[in-house]
Structure formats: C-alpha cells, structure tokens
Amino acid sequence: MDRGKYNIKAVAALVGLNPTTIRAWERRYQVLDPDRSESGHRIYSDNDVAKLRWIVDKQKEGLSVSKAIQLYEMPVNRAEVPHDYGVELRDQLFQALTNFEERHAHDIMNKAFSMFSFDKVIQDIVGPLLHEIGVKWESGEITIAHEHFATAFLRARLSTLSLQMPINPFLPRIVCVCAPEEEHELGLLFFTLYLRQSGFDVIFLGSGIPVQDLVTVTHQLQPKAVILSCTLSDHLPLLDEALARLMSDFPDLEIGLGGYAVDQLPERYGPHLLGADDQSWKSWLSRLTPTTGV
C-alpha cells in the first residue's frame, strides 16, 4: 500500500502547483483522495505526487485539466518510479553531518520538516540515518568524532521535538540510559523518540552512568521500566552488574536491553531483548501495558 507521507506544501513544491490549486482540483475533479494525519491535515503519497506531475505535464502539452484527468484514468501505460525526496534529504543530511556542517544540517532538517509529515521525517529520514551512521562507525568508514557530532546534533533537534509530543497519562514512565561507561547513544536516542511518539513518559539519560548512580536515580524516578543500551562488548561486565543490581533492588521493574553487543547474545539476555524492529518493540512494550496495549 502506498502510504501518505507528504504534506500539501511539499506536494506543491514537488509538482509546481500552489496548495490552493491542489485543493481546488480535489474538490472539482476528485483527482486525489489523500489520507489525513491525526490532526486532520492532508497527507499525500508518492502515487499522488506522480499523478499530479503527469497531469501538470499534460497541461503543458495543451490539454485541459479535465481532459488530462480523463486521459489519466484510461488503461494506458504510465509507468513511473516516483522519486522519494526523503532519501535525497537523508543523503544530504549524512554528508552535512560527516563534514561537520552544523548550519547546513539545520537547514536540511528545517526543509524536511517543512515538506514532510513528522512520521515521514522520523521513520524515513532520521531512523535510517541513525542506522547508517552506526554501521559506518562500526565498519571504520567514519570516526568516533563523526558519530559524536551527529549524535549531539540529532539529540538537540529531537529533544526539542519530543517536548511537543503529548504524554499519554495512562502509559508508564520509562528510563532510557546506556550501559555504564557506554557512550554510543544513537540507537537509544531513536528508541527514545519511538517511545515518546507512542505517548510514554520517557527520561533519557544518554551516556552510561555508574551502577550506584543508576540505582539512585531509579529509586527517585520510580519508573515502570529501564532500557539499557550496550554497543561495545567491553561494557558487558558492567551491564551485567547493573542488571543484577536493578533486578535485586527493584523486583517489579521491567528491564529492556538493546544494542549491538547484547543482540549478539540472545541466549544470555533473551527475555530482556527489545528486538530491532517495530513489531518486536511493540511486543516487548505490551508487557508494560497489559490492559491497553501500546
């Protein structure tokens, strides 16, 4: 199914029409039937963009709008691979971040949010970008300096956005933190945003803190769950220590684990593993909300 991802401003820019014209065509010709966001705004798909482009091109050839639409509905071959501008912006953002061009990176993010829906930016631009940065760091294609710069930039932008996300009062509090001495926050940052999108009250602590400090903070915050992320296997001993302390001091606490190091040891951390996709996350989180789900 071709999902909606572009707001009307983005579509207008992509096809060379103004929003008023697009809305008029929808009313007069029923040319499109866009999805609606939760707030009621029109959300258009790649197929919608391709259709409008085709009609605009026929207009330039001299056809009326009504005739172009009529021709479009005929069973002729109009095969066209729609261009996903989100991929293009994601590539531009990766280049800006790995070149340490902070101002340019902000401009690209501003453009993405002005053109696309929030879900589109997070799921198709930010999420894959975080993954790409992590993979390239692990393979040695970029340095730890690049990863830290990208993390700091995205954390600042996403923290601002997360403040705009409403908290569902029926969902519990979750603390997200790296394993002690672990500094790689990218995966945890994205999972935190996923939780906030779902309405959870999330406390993001970022880089790992000493075990005793984690215990102290958990006493203070009284969360329903603590999520620990561990990327480097060197930090597994301290992760195990933190896991043992939390399980001992907070027997009712749900503890989730993610990150490359723990994902390689499913037999060791199985019940705590979050998984790596939306379905796995929902399944794990369902244990926090047994009556309502996520």
Question: Your description of this structure?
Answer:
By secondary structure, the protein is an alpha/beta fold. It folds into 3 domains: 8-72, Multidrug-efflux Transporter Regulator, Chain: A, Domain 2 (Orthogonal Bundle), CATH 1.10.1660.10; 84-164, Methyltransferase, Methionine Synthase (B12-binding Domains), Chain A, domain 1; 166-294, Rossmann fold (3-Layer(aba) Sandwich), CATH 3.40.50.280. It is built from 14 helices and 6 strands. The protein has helices spanning 8-15, 19-29, 46-60, 65-72, 85-98, 102-115, 118-138, 144-162, 186-197, 211-221, 236-249, 260-263, 266-269, 278-285, and strands at 35-36, 42-43, 173-178, 201-206, 225-229, 254-258. The strands form 2 sheets. A 4-stranded parallel β-sheet has the order 4-3-5-6, with helices on both faces. The two termini are 23 Å apart.
Give a brief description.
The protein is an alpha/beta fold and 294 residues long. The chain is 55% helix and 9% strand.
Q: Based on CA inertia axes, which overall geometry fits?
A: elongated
CATH architecture of the largest domain: 3-Layer(aba) Sandwich
For this structure, the CATH topology of the largest domain is: Rossmann fold
Total beta-strand segments = 6
What are the segments in which pLDDT stays under 50 over at least 5 consecutive residues? Answer: 76-82
Gyration radius, rounded: 23 Å
Q: Total domains, how many?
A: 3
By CATH's scheme, which homologous superfamily of the largest domain applies? Cobalamin-binding domain
Specify the structural class. alpha/beta
Could you describe the largest sheet, including whether it forms a barrel? 4 strands, parallel
Please trace the helix and strand order, writing H or E for each element. HHEEHHHHHHEHEHEHEHHH
Q: Write out the strand line-up for the largest beta sheet, numbering strands in chain order.
A: 4-3-5-6
The N- to C-terminal Cα distance equals 23 Å
Estimate the mean pLDDT confidence: 85
| Alpha plus pi helix count | 14
